[in-house]
Amino acid sequence: MLNTMADDLQILFLPFLSPGHIIPMVDLARLFAGRGIKATVVTTTGNVPLVKPTVDLANTDASLRHPIQLLPLRLPCSEAGIPEGYENLADFPESDPDDFFRFIAATERLEPSFSLVLKTHRPDCVVVDFFYPWATRVAQDASVPSLLFNGSNFFSSAVIKIVQDGELKQGDLETERLIEVPGIPQKIRLKLSNLPYNVLHPNQFSHRMAESLHRIHGTVVNSFYELERDYVDRAPNSRDVRFWFVGPVSLQNRDMDTKMVRGSGDAASGSADHFLSWLETKRPRSVLYVCFGSMAWFTATQLREIARGLEASDRPFIWVVRNAGETSEWLPEGFESRVVGGGKGMLVQGWAPQLLILNHEAVGGFVTHCGWNSCLEAIAAGVPVITWPLFAEQFLNEELLVNVHKMGISIGVLSSCDKAEERTVVNGEQLKAAVDELMGSGEEAEERRKRARELGQTARRAMEEGGSSHEAMTCLIDELIRLKTTVD
Ligand code: UDP
C-alpha cells in the first residue's frame, strides 16, 4: 500500500547554484524518482545545460514511474547586482567571501518565482539547500513541509554545534586544540580558525540559516549511518533536528554515459574513451587522481609546485586544473613533452568525469581539497586520499577521513584561507613525500588501502536494498506519505 502512495508524492528539489550543491541534489532527485516519486529539479535557466543531460539520461530508465522534471526559473542577474549570465558560484573568478555573499543575496531574488511555483505545483514536500533559508519560510507560508539538504556530513555540523555552544568564545583561534564530542572516545583535533567563514564571522545570513532549522521537518544527509555512527548516536545536534542518512547519493551513477555528463552537461574535457583508454594502459591502483573540486583557484607558483611534485613522484597521474591561465605561465619547462607526452601523466584543463576516473581499477589514490562530495565519492570508490583542505568545512572533512577513519594522509595545510594568493605554498617535495607514503607498499599503506576498501564496501552496502541508507529512504518516504495523509 505504501508503494502505491509513494507514487502520489510530488517533491521539488531546490539546489544552491554551485556544482558541489547541484550535483548531489540532482542525484538525490534521481534517488527519489527511483522510488516512484514525482521529482522536479528547480534551477535557473543558466544552469539548465549542466543538469539537463543527466535528467534526460535518467529519464531513459524504463523503470522510472514518472520522468524527472526540470523547472527553470529566471535569475534577474543585473537587478541583483551580479554580471548577466553569472548564474553559478563557480562562474566567479575567486572563492572570495564577498562574492559568495553577493551571490547569496542575488539568489534571494528567486523567492517570488519559487513562491509562485509552490502555489501552482502544490508539492507534498520541498528539499531545499541549506544556503536558502528564505525557501523554508516560503514553504512554511505555503504549508508545504520542507527538508533541508546541507550538502555536507553530520560530523562537521556536530563539531560546529559543539564549538558554537562553547569553545568558540574562548581564547586563541590559532591554537590547535582537542575538542570532545560528549560520549565518544576520539577527540577531534581542530584549530578554531579553520572553521567555515560563516561560523567564525556570524552575520545576518548565519542567523537566518540557524532560524531556518526551526521551520524544517528534518535534514537529508548525503552520508551513511555507518560512517558517522558515533556522532549520530551521541552528538548534541542529533536531538534538535531529525536526520535521514541516504547516501552516498553518487552511487546511483552506474553507467558510463551518466558518469560522463554528471555535473558538466556535455562540457567534460575529453570523451570517456579518452580517459578509459589511457587508464587501461596502467597497472591496477597505480594512478594518482588529483582534483580540487569545482571552484578552487591556485596561484601559478602553487600550480608549478604541484607539477614538480607529481613529476618527482614518478607515478602515473590524472591532474585536473581549473581556472588557470596559459600553461606556459605555470608548467615547468618541458613538462608537457616529458610527462604528458611520455604518457606518464594526463593534464585535464577544465572538467574531468570524476566518478568514471575514481571508480576505475587503475586508480589507487586521490589528492582532494576535501569538498564533501569528493570525500564521499572517494569513500564510495574505496580509494585512499591525500587531504589538501582549503576553506569552508574542508578541514573537518579532513579530520574525519584522516584521523577518524584513517583512510588518508594530510598534506599538512595548517590554515584555512579563501584567497589563493594568501595561502602558504605547499611545495613539490611535500607533495612527493605524501604521494610516496600513500601509493607506496609499506604495511601502513596497505592497512590504509584495506580500510578504504572496506569503507567503500560498507558505503555500497548501505545503498543496497536492506542497507542503512536504503532503509532511511524508506522511512523518509513513509514519513512523507504520513504527512500527506494528515494534511489531506
Ligand atoms: N567534479 C567533477 N569533475 C571535476 C571537478 C569536480 O566531476 O573536474 C565533481 C565532483 O565529482 C563532485 C563535485 O564536482 O561531485 C565537487 O564537489 P565537492 O563537494 O567535492 O567540491 P566543491 O566543488 O563544492 O568545492
Automatic annotation (TrEMBL):
Q: Which GO terms describe its molecular function?
A: UDP-glucosyltransferase activity
Per the UniProt record, one Pfam family is UDPGT
The EC number(s) given in the record are 2.4.1.-
Keyword Transferase on entry: yes
Keywords on this record?
Glycosyltransferase, Transferase
Instruction: Return the SUPFAM superfamilies for the record.
Output: UDP-Glycosyltransferase/glycogen phosphorylase (SSF53756)
Glycosyltransferase as a keyword of this entry, yes or no, is: yes
Q: Domain of life of the organism in this record? A: Eukaryota
Enzyme superclass (EC): transferase
- What protein family does this chain belong to? Belongs to the UDP-glycosyltransferase family.
Question: PANTHER family, from UniProt?
Answer: GLYCOSYLTRANSFERASE
| Descriptive protein name | Glycosyltransferase
